[in-house]
Design brief:
This protein is of the alpha+beta class. Helices cover 27% and strands 23% of the residues. Strands 1, 2, 8, 9, 10, 13, 19 and 20 form an eight-stranded mixed sheet that branches. α2 packs parallel to α4, α2 runs parallel beside α8 and α8 packs across α9. The mean pLDDT is 95.
Length: 558
């Protein structure tokens, strides 16, 4: 089988494009970086690569947006028509049991669940708007192109990225549609791929950016978009839930937000440090929707969208060094999400702006390919740093159990602010990666999930269908198995095949080969690019790499 390197040797060299700044990822962080650079100096040449078919195609978020950062980026965002149209009107925090719930009184609401001044949005639409603002400023956005390779010079500095070759068949042979990838070279390269970005992961390892830091922690976020009965619509209502169906040892909760136009977005976040290999985040969300408190919003409505994405659980203790020779990490590629507030878009935008300020200063001084020390220094002095420090223990308390987590959230997010203490005077640490948390199947209780009813709850195939996921099937697998024996000998034998459950798109299944032996089948065409397998696989035997650009989900209004 020909590798990309072999193909380059026989069909190269690649075309190359030079610019001042290359940005990988047209999400909030990448676009904010590009916009800020052009605002500072319109002569700075900026290119943004986006693996989705368009800016916003792969964007998945709740989302309730804090407008603080976008107001700094565009003080006139309302006059410009930014799609932040629905202010939050009411907050609810429900603690669920199997059939009932307790609503938290407003006077007891922790500050992280208070959303006054925020907006219920489609983050995909906000990103499309940001992309238009960027292009109006002269930013070049190349959608449908996946950055797949780091480019380094002889001093081990990042000098750009290369896109993957396209038109390669499953065995690595060029087809009639073959095109070599392209090199995009810049004085600085910014990585804004979102949580567990595959090049960001490579950079963290290459430059040891996480050395001396806490282990990073992740969750999977699953989301649906509904059109609801107008009589049940309450635009601006924000609902968060704790408790059922999560077991006391599993971090997670639900969200349900009413948008304008009788639309509602809902979903569930499940920490990927869960222990029971029989747990299925997708099925947990489906049964959560059947709770009377949630069903009441959905009855008579229609599900019109579905998606899933790994999210970074943040904490400044786990934030890697965000700079290296020739570039920087921004947004969730670095890990700026505030998991206590379930908000990352404002943090992504702010981090991109801080990075852009540092790059513009460097370029004006004639520098290139060095470390942007001004970027992390500016972060430490920013309101974003203060905000993340306030929430730095939120996820970690839940590692000590549900009751401890709830109690200490009350202490840190309600009691301390009441007595004038903004940030807790103690710091917890995470020393164990998520993939190490799974227990053997024989030590756990299997979970019997109810069958979907097709009205409130659904199966994975119908969900993937409405995510508009599409991949060119005759291409090399982008889900790589380092040791093909391990899925059966370890994952199936010891953990009862957890990849068939933690994947929210039915990518992995165990079948029998013609000789009756167990084998793992990978349905890569179903992949919604959530990256959960890359994080949760207990032996870290699965590597997520970028498929051909333009593939994956095409989320509409998500």
């Amino acid at each position: 089988m020909k590798t990309p390197t072999h193909i380059l040797e026989s069909h190269g060299p690649r075309d190359s494009m030079d610019c001042d700044v290359v940005i990988v990822g047209a999400g909030p962080a990448g676009l904010a970086t590009a916009i800020r650079l052009k605002q500072i100096d319109s002569d700075i040449s900026v290119v943004v690569l986006e693996k989705g078919s368009e800016a916003g195609a792969h964007i998945l978020s709740g989302a309730v947006m804090d407008p603080r950062a976008i107001h700094e980026l565009f003080p006139d965002w309302q006059q410009r028509g930014a799609p932040l149209k629905q202010p939050v009107t009411r907050d609810q925090l429900l603690v669920l049991s199997r059939t009932s719930f307790v609503s938290t009184p407003q006077w007891l609401m922790p500050r992280n669940f208070q959303n006054q001044g925020c907006y219920v949005i489609s983050l995909g639409n906000v990103v499309r708007w940001l992309a238009q603002q960027a292009e109006d400023l002269g930013v070049e956005i190349f959608a449908g192109f996946a950055a797949s390779e780091l480019l380094c010079d002889d001093q081990n500095r990042i000098v750009g990225v290369a896109t993957n070759h396209v038109g390669i068949d499953k065995v690595g042979q060029p087809t009639e549609q073959f095109q070599l990838g392209m090199e995009l070279r810049g004085k600085y390269t910014v990585f804004a791929e979102g949580a567990r970005g595959h090049l960001g992961k490579e950079l963290i390892d290459k430059y040891r950016l996480a050395e001396g830091k806490d282990c990073r922690s992740f969750a999977i976020g699953l989301k649906e978009l509904w059109e609801v009965d107008p009589a049940k619509a309450e635009p601006g209502l924000v609902v968060h839930t704790a408790g059922w169906p999560m077991d006391p040892g599993t971090f997670g909760g639900g969200f349900l937000y009413h948008l304008e136009d009788n639309k509602l977005t809902l979903g569930m976040v499940v920490g990927l440090d869960y222990r029971n290999p029989f747990l299925s985040p997708f099925d947990e969300m489906q049964r959560w929707k059947t709770h009377p408190a949630i069903r009441a919003h959905l009855q008579g409505g229609k599900r019109i969208g579905y998606g899933a994405r790994a999210i970074n659980n943040g904490t400044p203790q786990a934030l890697p060094k965000t700079i290296f020779p020739g570039g920087a990490l921004v947004g969730c590629d670095a890990g700026y999400l505030n998991v206590a507030r379930i908000k990352g878009s404002h943090a992504a935008i702010k981090s991109g702006m801080l990075c852009a300020d540092a790059i513009a200063e460097a370029l004006s001084a004639g520098r290139a390919h060095d470390e942007l020390a001004a970027y992390p220094a500016a972060f430490e002095a920013s309101w974003l740093s203060d905000e993340l420090k306030q929430a730095r223990n939120f996820k970690l308390w839940y590692k000590k159990g549900d009751l401890v987590g709830k109690f200490m959230t009350g202490v840190e997010q309600w009691l301390l602010p009441k007595i004038g203490v903004s940030s807790p005077p103690w710091t917890l640490h995470n020393r164990s990666p998520d993939h190490a948390s799974l227990r053997p199947a024989d030590q756990c209780v299997a979970i019997d999930y109810p069958k979907p009813d097709g009205a409130i709850s659904f199966d994975k195939p119908s969900s993937v269908f409405i995510s508009n996921t599409n991949h060119e099937e005759n291409q090399p697998a982008h889900l790589l198995i380092k040791n093909t024996a391990i899925p059966v000998s370890v994952n199936l034998a010891k953990f009862a095949g957890p990849e068939t459950r933690y994947c929210p798109a039915g990518v992995y299944e165990f079948t029998r080969d013609p000789h009756g032996a167990d084998q793992l089948v990978i349905n890569a065409q179903n992949c919604v690019h959530c990256k959960t397998c890359d994080i949760k696989d207990p032996t870290q035997n699965i590597i997520w790499s970028s498929p051909e650009g333009g593939g994956g989900p095409n989320y509409a209004a998500m």
